[in-house]
Amino acid sequence: xRSLIGICLLALLPFAAPAAGPAAHAIPTRVALDAEVxxxxxxxxANGLAIAIIDEGKVVHVAAYxxxxxxxxxxxADTVMYGASLTKAVFAYTVMQLVEEGRLDLDRPxxxxxxxxxxxxxxxxxxxxxxxxxxDSRWKGITARHLLTHSSGFANFAxxxxxGKLRIHFDPGxxxxxxxxxxxxxxxxxxxxxxxxxxxxxxxxxxxRFGMPNTSMIWRADFAANLADGxxxxxxxxxxxxxxxxxxxxxxxxxxxxxxxxxxxxINGEGLRADTxxxxxxxxxxxxxxxxFPSLQDELPAPQRRKDLAAxxxxxxxxxxxxxxxxxxxxxxxxxxxxxxxxxxKRCVVILGNDVRAERAFPRLVSFVLGDTGVPWRWEYGAGxxxxx
Length: 389
Known about the structure:
By secondary structure, the protein is an alpha+beta fold.
């Protein structure tokens, strides 16, 4: 377990010097970053935000700003915050360990992991309504790769369908359409098909491995002492949701300190073979829509598609002015998170916002820290997002 004293000392140190090379964007000083965050939060009307910076694969800064609740208690580096869909990237890292061990095959049809047809398993609260797929044999061709690249053909979640029933909208593997339900299906493969406890696997393979003491896939009572509530778009406070079941699509609670350590381990490829890391963070499937949501929107004509934008395995990958990069966002009505990395110089920024309005500041803050990266902000949030300058 890391020392909190050590964390405080780290925050008092100046940032490491930027890597050699005239094209390197200089990582800002702590004083400059503090001022920029304060200005960005004010412009975005965000009450709370935490940020971590990784340079040359090492955590060089962790800080929290603003409030964690309506009482005005300060947001701190070890305040527990909702990870939202950053969970999906951590889950994917876990899945790829199972792939390396030969327990999962990215291209094996998921139905082969079960003792009976997937559609014969009853609908359960913790999982998807698999019997809904009984009339569509295309489920038999779905693979783990399809699920990690959001190409299962599912809507984001079955409850968003007009009749609340799960269905396949296109042939699996043929296009990108964001689906949390797809990640839940892969969780079902791991838990029901392989007989593993996903929460325990993620705890052992990720949280314990990288020294993340305040991260969990389910609620822990000790989180209550230093917990972040959230603010919605209209300024309403949303109490932190105490999630009582593991959900691969987004049940993780974490802290900015813990996520900084995970991001550093990830960009260094720790715990995985080099070819596995390369596969996770390289184009697997082109992204062909104008924005990420609505997830089942029509594809753009080929000339209008961003040719450098693609699904990796659990992350979105892109090419920009600094070369190859990847990112993952996380969002609900009172949460805005982002994690952006550029492979060159192994640099990352992680931002956890316990106010959804913090998302307006993400392009400004990521650019301030990393320079121009080419992150597809408009695709991530849609053309109507009011980003601040």
